[in-house]
Amino acid sequence: MGIFDFIKGKKETYLPVEIRAGITEDIPDFSDIVAEIKKYRPQIQTSMTSILGKGYLEVGGGIAPLWPIPEPFIEFLFNYSDILRNIIRTLRVELFKNGIEVQPKYYSKCLDCGKEFDEEFDRCPECGSKNLKYPSDEEKKRIEEFIQKVNEADMTLLDVLGQIEDDLNQYDNAYLYFMKDYYFNDEGELIGAELKEIYRIHPNKVIKIMDGYGRFGYSNGEEVYVCLEHRNTLQRKREYCK
User: What is the per-residue pLDDT across 36-54, written as a single tens digit (0 to 9) for each?
Assistant: First the structure.
């Protein structure tokens, strides 16, 4: 639940009072903004109950969220309400105050049977093989270096995750964009990928590819697919992109 849900649940008659209570005195009067909210609230409420019944609007084969309060006004509250901004900042600081620690996925892994163990063994307890793999110090170093710069904007992973935490508390929606290099064999089959950058995407820029039942990868009741090179086109058949 986001920090603004208590506002979403209020009746219209209480909206200006509740919002003004959190705004600092030096902010100009925004009665015009409140009037706009009251003007469009009936249409928004109608959409919330009639479109999928869950506050989502069908757009381009997917669904986009609808907010009872317009998204620009939510941002206005976040930027100019000392109380709300301090609450959200405190949540973010407490969540990430200990930083990020890189831990191994396993301490021993058998390359013959594929079993992973949280202890270091000389011989696989499952199949008895001595063909074991252990965590790589070089790989750990690469991850720790990447965490300190996850994109060309010189942002750390904590910087990006902090943005995501703020989005969750404001909109109840948050999205990460993982930029990858993909590798294909001569037959065009995907054989691997390498993560290059991580960014935050603003929630109002995202359309979820899902149907009215909440099934991801479905549109209008049909399963859809996306080519890695032509992401703007939803394909109805699972075959090689022509």
Answer: 545 544 444 443 334 434 4
**Eight-state DSSP code of residue 131:** -
Closest CA to 165 of 76, 65, 80, 97: 97
Region label for 128, one of left (φ > 0), alpha (ψ between -120 and 50) or beta (otherwise): left
- For 102, the token pair is 């890189």
Distance of CA 69 to the CA centre of its chain: 21
CB 189 within 8 A of CB 183: no
Q: Closest Cα partner for 103 from 155, 132, 150, 144?
A: 144
- Cα first-last separation, the chain: 43
Domain boundary assignment for the chain: 101-135
CB 81 within 8 A of CB 23: yes
Statement: the pTM of the whole predicted model exceeds 0.85: no
Q: Which amino acid would we find at residue 125?
A: P
pLDDT at residue 219, rounded to an integer:
80
Give the angle 4-8-10 at the CA atoms, nearest 5°. 120
Compute the distance between CA of residue 101 and CA of residue 3 in angstroms, rounded to an integer: 28
Q: List, for residues 83-101, the tens digit of each pLDDT value.
A: 888 888 898 999 999 988 8
Taking the C-alpha atoms of residue 231 and residue 61, their distance in angstroms, rounded to an integer, is 13
The CA distance from 26 to 21, in Å, is: 13
Cβ-based burial of 125 (10 A; exposed 0-12, middle 13-18, buried ≥19): exposed
